Amino acid sequence: DAKTTQPTSMDCAEGRAANLPCNHSTISGNEYVYWYRQIHSQGPQYIIHGLKNNETNEMASLIITEDRKSSTLILPHATLRDTAVYYCIVRRTGTASKLTFGTGTRLQVTL
Amino acid sequence: DVKVTQSSRYLVKRTGEKVFLECVQDMDHENMFWYRQDPGLGLRLIYFSYDVKMKEKGDIPEGYSVSREKKERFSLILESASTNQTSMYLCASTPDRSLYEQYFGPGTRLTVT
């Protein structure tokens, strides 16, 4: 599975878009990009995933570059409740579905 | 919405006690997982189950066992609790074992004294 690199921390003002980058330069053709987040003292929460097309759901948008070597998770209107650690994961489907998280990005949303 | 519930949010047990952690999901998912999460060590898989009465060891099964008698319920058992099993325990489920779209419960913070 490809390795991912994320910034350690980011700040975002409430109401503004939060753009969280993830670098996965060794990604292979059959690997998906998944995003999860974990709010303090809670279980992880699945956000979104994609292969090569941009994806959007009620929580966020995922923008994957054309070469697939990086992606950006966008929270369009961040709120204080979006303060969490965000994890970018790259995985092939069709394999054992154990999840492992790296260190992630700690997003702090401020007033 | 998928709902995964865990029997306790906080639990304090003594060394040597037998501990039961229960997880229930309401979306008819076939696949269920138990993880533990510790600072600096991330998420580690203890056991998982792809079907009723079926179980497979994860990365750190020692000191744990599991039970899946019904599809919606997956129990984690600490046969004889030890202080190094103090941790946050997380249950998850997914409809397809090949997916990484896993739905987690709120977690049980277990302290063994």
Structural overview:
Chain A has 111 residues and is mostly beta strands. Chain A is 0% helix and 47% strand. Chain A has no helices and nine strands. In chain A, the strands form two sheets. Chain A has a five-stranded mixed β-sheet, with no helix packed on it. Chain A has a four-stranded antiparallel β-sheet with strand order 2-7-6-5, with no helix packed on it. In chain A, strand 6 (61-64) and strand 7 (70-75) form a beta hairpin. The radius of gyration of chain A is 13 Å and the shape is globular. Chain A starts with 8 loop residues before the first strand and ends with a strand. The mean pLDDT of chain A is 91. Chain B is mainly β and 113 residues long. Helix content of chain B is 0%, strand content 53%. Chain B has no helices and eleven strands. Chain B has strands spanning 4-6, 10-13, 19-25, 31-38, 42-49, 56-57, 64-70, 73-78, 87-94, 103-104, 108-112. In chain B, the strands form two sheets. In chain B, strands 2, 4, 5, 6, 9, 10 and 11 form a seven-stranded mixed β-sheet that branches. Chain B starts with a strand and ends with a strand. Classes of the chains: A mainly beta (111), B mainly beta (113). At the A-B interface, strand 4 of A face strand 4, strand 5, strand 9 and strand 10 of B.
Short description:
Chain A has 111 residues and is mainly beta. Chain A contains no helices and 9 strands. In chain B, strands 2, 4, 5, 6, 9, 10 and 11 form a 7-stranded mixed sheet that branches.
Averaged pLDDT of chain B, please? 92
Helix content of chain A: under 10%
Q: Please, what is the average pLDDT of chain A?
A: 91
Query: How many distinct beta strands of chain A?
Result: 9
Assign a percent range to the helix content of chain B.
under 10%
Q: Please state roughly what percent of the residues of chain B sit in beta strands, choosing from under 5%, 5-15%, 15-25%, 25-35%, 35-45% or over 45%.
A: over 45%
Largest β sheet strand count, sense and barrel closure of chain A: 5 strands, mixed
Radius of gyration of chain A: 13 Å
The structure class of chain A reads mainly beta
Strand order of the largest sheet of chain A: 1-9-8-3-4
Q: Spell out the helices and strands of chain A N to C.
A: EEEEEEEEE
Contiguous uncertain segments of 5+ residues of chain A: none
Q: Could you name the ranges of chain B where pLDDT drops below 50 across 5 or more consecutive residues?
A: none
SSE series of chain B:
EEEEEEEEEEE
Principal-axes shape call of chain B: globular
Strand content of chain A: over 45%
Query: Tally the helices of chain B: what do you get?
Result: 0
- N- to C-terminal separation of chain B? 37 Å
* Rounded radius of gyration of chain B (Å): 13 Å
The dominant shape of chain A is globular
